[in-house]
Amino acid sequence: MNIAVIYGGRSGEHEISLISAAAITRGIKKENKVILIAITKEGKWYLQDDSEYQRILKDQNAALSIKEDEDKLINIIPGQGKTSFVVGGKPLSIDIVFPALHGTYGEDGTIQGLFEMCDIPYVGCGHLASAITMDKEKTKMIWQSLGLPVVPYVCMKRFVMLDSVVYDAFIEDTEKELGYPMFVKPCCAGSSNGANKATNRKELSYAIMEAFNWDDKVLIEKSINAREVECSVTGNSVTFNHDNDFEDVVAYIPGEIAPSHTFYDFDAKYNDPEGAKLLIPAELAENDLEKIRKTACAAYKALDASGLSRVDFFIDKDTKAVYLNEINTMPGFTTISMFPKMCDAAGLHFEELVELLINEATERFNSKEKLQTSR
C-alpha cells in the first residue's frame, strides 16, 4: 500500500506536526511504501526525497523537515482518485492519505474537503465533523442540545470589538454571568494558542485582544477549579460495520494531566518536559473512569466523528461535577502526547494504532463509494 503522510501546514501548530508526522511515519509497517508530502507555512506542497524517510527511521527522536524543491512542487487535480497528486507532470500513486496536520487548514475540514473532491481515502474525521469540532462554540452547542455537560461560556464575535458601547455592555454582562477568573481562547485554534486566564477586567481585555489575533470568534469560559482528564476514542460513529472491530467506537483508558504551570498552555504541552505529570489511568474510581469513557463515546458520536479523537474533560475539584471541555480530532502523536499513551495503556500499541486508523479510513471510504451521487 502507498501511504502519503502529509505534514507541516499553515497553522500555529506547524512545528508540532513535524514531530507527530515523524512518529506516525515510523509507526507505519515497513511493507508499505511511505510518501512524504510537506506543506510549508505559506501553503505550498512539496514531495520529499526518500532520504528524509530513511533519516527519521534511523533516529527515533528526529522531527521531519521540509525541503522546498520547486521541481517537486505538488499540483492537485480533483476527481482523479489515487492519482490526484501530480509532480512534474507525473501523477503519484497514493492509496490513502494520513494527514498528520494540527489546527487551521489541517483539522478544520478544509483539507478533508479537498480529499473528498479528489476521491481519495484519508485518516481522521470527515470534512463536516472536522469543521464543527474545530469550532469550540458550535461543538458546545451540539453537546448542550443533547444534554451533555459543558462549562458555562459566552462567545464574542469580532463585530462586538468594533463598537465601544456594545463592547462595554458585553463585558459587563459576561462579568455578571461568569465571574472572575475566566479563561479566554480563540474559538478555532488549538494547542492553547491565544489562550489566557483573566482575573480582572484589565486582564480580560488583554486576553480578548490576544485571542482575536487567532480567530474572529472568541470563547470566554467560567474558570473551574478542575482536574484535567482526557480520553482517546477511535472508530466510525456513522457507518461502522459490526464485523470489523477497527470500526467500532471504542474509548480507551482515561488519563489525567497534572500541570506544573498556571494552566496547561502551549509551552507546558510541548516545550517543557516537566510541564505536567501524565497519569494513566487517571486517579479515579473505576465507576468514574467508566463514566468518562461512556461520555467520551457519546460526545464523539454526537459530532459524527470518525477515525480518532481525544475528548477532554474537566472535573470540578470542589463539586466533583464532570464537564466536557473540547474534542481534538487530530491529537498530537509526539513522544509525550496523551492520545497514543492512553491507547497503549489499554493494549493498543503504537504500530497497531496506526494500522487500525488506516484500516478504518479505508473501510469508511469503501462504504461511501457505494453511495449514489447522480442519476
Account of the 3D structure:
By secondary structure, the protein is an alpha+beta fold. It is 35% helix and 23% strand. The chain has 12 helices and 17 strands. Strands 12, 13, 14, 15, 16 and 17 form a 6-stranded antiparallel β-sheet that branches. A 4-stranded mixed β-sheet has the order 3-2-1-7. Helix 3 (110-118) packs antiparallel against helix 4 (127-134). The longest helix is centred in the C-terminal third of the chain and has 20 residues, at 350-369. It is globular, with a radius of gyration of 21 Å. The protein starts with a strand and ends in a 6-residue tail after the last helix. The model has no long low-confidence stretch (mean pLDDT 93).
What attributes does this structure have?
12 helices, 23% strand, 375 residues, 17 strands, four-stranded mixed sheet, alpha+beta
Walk me through the topology:
Elements: E1 2-8, H1 14-27, E2 33-39, E3 45-47, H2 50-58, E4 74-76, E5 85-87, E6 90-91, E7 96-99, H3 110-118, H4 127-134, H5 136-145, E8 153-157, H6 158-161, H7 164-178, E9 182-186, E10 196-198, H8 201-211, E11 217-222, E12 226-236, E13 250-251, E14 255-259, H9 266-271, E15 276-279, H10 286-302, E16 306-316, E17 322-328, H11 338-345, H12 350-369
Parallel strand pairs: 1-2, 1-7
Antiparallel strand pairs: 2-3, 4-5, 5-6, 8-11, 9-10, 9-11, 12-13, 12-14, 12-16, 14-15, 16-17
Briefly, what is this?
By secondary structure, this protein is an alpha+beta fold. It has helices at residues 14-27, 50-58, 110-118, 127-134, 136-145, 158-161, 164-178, 201-211, 266-271, 286-302, 338-345, 350-369; strands at 2-8, 33-39, 45-47, 74-76, 85-87, 90-91, 96-99, 153-157, 182-186, 196-198, 217-222, 226-236, 250-251, 255-259, 276-279, 306-316, 322-328.
